[in-house]
Every structure is written in structure tokens, then in C-alpha cells.
Specification:
- The protein folds into two domains: 167 residues, Rossmann fold (3-Layer(aba) Sandwich), CATH 3.40.50; 202 residues, Dehydroquinate synthase-like, alpha domain (Up-down Bundle).
- It is 46% helix and 11% strand.
- The protein contains 15 helices and eight strands.
- Strands 1-8-5-4-2-3 form a six-stranded parallel sheet, with helices on both faces. The protein has a two-stranded antiparallel sheet with strand order 6-7.
- α11 packs across α15.
Length: 387
């Protein structure tokens, strides 16, 4: 196991009725901006709960954050914050709203062009404090420093990470997820599953505790993911999925080990160019990465097959790997996420645009060994097009 430093200051309020804790979680003397997406929180009662909890605060609204948050929309929120002297933000929504809020609170105090945060890794010296009310478990953004922002005019979808954008707190009430469309629920399960896989499916690193943490989350997502589509009103199922998604990417399971984020980096470009859901791109790319890198990932793939999918230990290594990849595809398909690009009517002639974006964004050395070149990414994408 490698040396590591772990720091996570986010306070979690988990369970039914916890939105009421906003009253004391947000300082009373703050001008509070509530940031949310398309307005579903006004239909499912969450918005009213938030306003009730903040009834003794000076609150303002900013809505319209997209499923893949756009830079231009974020900058409108930044201007609102600056014009209205906002000094605390509450993000109400899923990972997209929280990701957008992270960029917004960083850009609000940024001196210079905020686009540099995404393109140049510009230093963030200060950020506006914020907290979250999570309504869509998927990205783990409620308990980490990561954010991904899109700029459609440039066909860009770029990540940044900075400790200044840790949420001060996150409220996780599973009941807020009851009214989500099944597609979003399924996407969340797949997204969380792939988050775990990319921190786990590398090579043996003498970190058995991290492995077993990861395997436990994967097994729970498989069990609860299949249940949630059949029992959408089961509180315990919703609670287990919500907590899995948070633990999948609060970075605890990645400490002391190397990770492989190639699937995410290639997937981001598929979203930027073709507009696919983030989870859809992950379900498409991950099985191809597993297959393409099966030699270097062989030991962990075999372990994954045995421990997560209960593969017969008497199978050969290649048979275990084939079994693990097939079971992963089957799980994604069961959750409603197709595992080939062709299923989404993607024009195969436009696939070179993905490679152009990867090169333009300097994503030319991916994977835990930094050995997935642009040529390798091309082969992975080609493998992902059709059976």
C-alpha cells in the first residue's frame, strides 16, 4: 500500500426528515442562494421543505442547472452572487447541480478568467461556503472535491478538483428520491458502480481492506439496483443505494492505491459530442476497457469475478475474465443502460471526433499505468461500437 493523506470535512445528515437540519446547518446571518435544476424539486415537495427550514434566513433562488452543467449557466449564477452579495450557497439536486455549485463558488472569488480553472488547473485561493441537499444519488459529489463542467460551444466536458470546494455539509434523505424517473435511478446505480470499479479494478496492491470495501459496495449496488426498479417506494433500498453512491466516491476506497479513470475520461467525450447520459457512456466504455486491458488487469479481474459475481474458482483465468465482463454487461443492460454505441444510433463516422477531443484535452496517457495511448483509446472506442 502506498503512503496517503486523507481529509474529508463534509458533515453528513442522513435519513428521513433531515432537511429540517438546514435551519442550524446554515448560519443565520448569511444571504443564501438556493441553486437547483429544472424545477422538479418544486413538484416533489423538496423545495418547500428547504424553504421551510430556511424560513429565518435571507434566501434567493437560481434555477436552470442542466444535467451536464454548462459553463455559461454557471457564470450567470456567479454574476447573480456578485450582484446580490450572496455569502452562502445551498445546492439542491443531484451531482450536476452540486458539480455546478462547486464551480460557481470557486469562480465567484476567482481573479481572472474562470475558464482557466478547467483548462489550466488555475489555483483557487478562496471559495464561497456551501452545503448540499442531495436528491439524486450517483456521483458522490456531495462528499468530495470533484466537479465536471461542460461548454457545448467548444464540445468540452472538463473536470477539476480542489479542497476549497468540499461541501460543508450534505443532507441525504432517501425519500427525496422516490419521484425520480426510473432512468435517472438506474443511471445513478451504474454511475456509482463504475466509480467503484475504476478505483478497484487495477492490479493487486496489497490493500485488502480497500478491495473488500469496494467489493461490498459493488455487491450492494447489484442487489439493491435490481430491487429498486421493482420496488421504487422501498425506503431501505433507496437508503442503501444513496449511501453506496456517496461511499463510492468520497475517495476512501482509493487511498493507498492507484486508480484507473480511463472509462470516465473517454465517456466524458462521448457526452460532449453525442449528448449521451454520463452513465450510458460508462456502461458502453467500461466493458471494452476491461477486455482491452485484460492482460494487465487479469489478477484483479479474476478476483472481481470470484468475489463479486461468484465465478467458479475452477474456471481458467480467461474464463473468469470473460464471465466477469459478461456479468457486468448483463447488469448494466438490466439497469436499462445499453453497452454498445450502436444501440444509441451513434453515427460511426463521427467517432474520430472523440479522439480529437481526447487529444485536445491532453487525455493521451490514461489508466493506472498511464499506458492507454490515443491509439489504445481508439481501439477501445471501436470495440464499444457493436457486438
Amino acid at each position: 500500500m502506498q503512503n496517503f493523506e486523507y481529509y474529508n470535512p463534509t458533515r453528513i445528515y442522513f435519513g428521513t426528515g433531515e432537511i429540517a437540519k438546514l435551519e442550524n446547518a446554515v448560519p443565520k446571518d448569511k444571504r443564501v442562494l438556493i441553486i437547483y435544476g429544472g424545477g422538479s424539486i418544486k413538484n416533489n415537495g423538496v423545495y418547500d421543505e428547504v424553504l421551510s427550514a430556511l424560513s429565518n434566513h435571507d434566501t434567493h433562488d437560481f434555477s436552470g442547472i442542466e444535467p451536464n452543467p454548462e459553463y455559461e449557466t454557471c457564470m450567470k449564477a456567479v454574476k447573480y452572487i456578485q450582484a446580490n452579495n450572496i455569502d452562502f450557497v445551498v445546492a439542491v439536486g443531484g451531482g450536476s447541480v452540486i458539480d455546478a455549485t462547486k464551480f460557481i463558488v470557486a469562480a465567484a472569488y476567482f481573479e481572472g478568467e474562470p475558464w482557466d480553472i478547467l483548462t489550466k488547473g488555475a489555483e483557487i485561493k478562496k471559495a464561497l461556503p456551501f452545503g448540499c441537499v442531495l436528491t439524486l444519488p450517483a456521483t458522490g459529489s456531495e462528499m468530495n472535491i470533484n466537479s465536471v463542467i461542460s461548454r457545448r460551444e467548444f464540445n468540452k466536458k472538463l473536470p477539476f478538483a480542489n479542497e476549497k470546494v468540499f461541501p460543508q455539509f450534505s443532507i441525504l434523505d432517501p425519500e427525496t428520491t422516490y419521484t425520480l424517473p426510473s432512468r435517472q435511478v438506474a443511471n445513478g446505480v451504474v454511475d456509482a458502480f463504475v466509480h467503484v470499479i475504476e478505483q478497484y479494478l487495477t492490479y493487486p496492491q496489497d490493500a485488502p481492506l480497500q478491495d473488500r470495501f469496494a467489493e461490498g459496495i459493488l455487491q450492494t449496488l447489484i442487489e439493491e439496483g435490481e430491487k429498486v426498479l421493482a420496488k421504487p417506494d422501498d425506503y431501505n433500498v433507496r437508503a442503501n443505494i444513496m449511501w453506496c453512491a456517496t461511499l463510492a466516491l468520497n475517495t476512501l476506497i482509493s487511498k493507498g492505491v492507484k486508480s484507473d479513470w480511463a472509462t470516465h475520461m473517454i465517456g466524458h467525450e462521448l457526452t460532449a459530442i453525442f449528448g449521451l447520459d454520463h452513465a450510458q457512456t460508462l456502461a458502453i466504455i467500461l466493458p471494452s476497457v476491461m477486455n482491452y486491458k485484460r492482460d494487465k488487469k487479469a489478477k484483479k479481474l479474476s478476483q472481481y469475478a470470484e468475489r463479486v459475481w461468484q465465478a467458479d474458482k475452477n474456471l481458467s483465468q480467461d474464463e473468469k475474465i470473460d464471465f466477469a465482463i459478461a456479468k457486468t454487461r448483463q447488469f448494466f443492460e438490466t439497469m436499462g443502460n445499453h453497452t454498445y454505441l450502436k444501440a444509441y444510433d451513434i453515427d460511426q463516422s463521427k467517432l474520430p471526433l472523440v479522439l480529437e477531443n481526447l487529444q485536445d484535452n491532453n487525455m493521451v496517457s490514461l489508466g493506472e499505468h498511464q499506458d492507454i495511448t490515443l491509439e489504445d483509446s481508439q481501439k477501445i472506442i471501436e470495440m464499444s461500437y457493436d457486438h
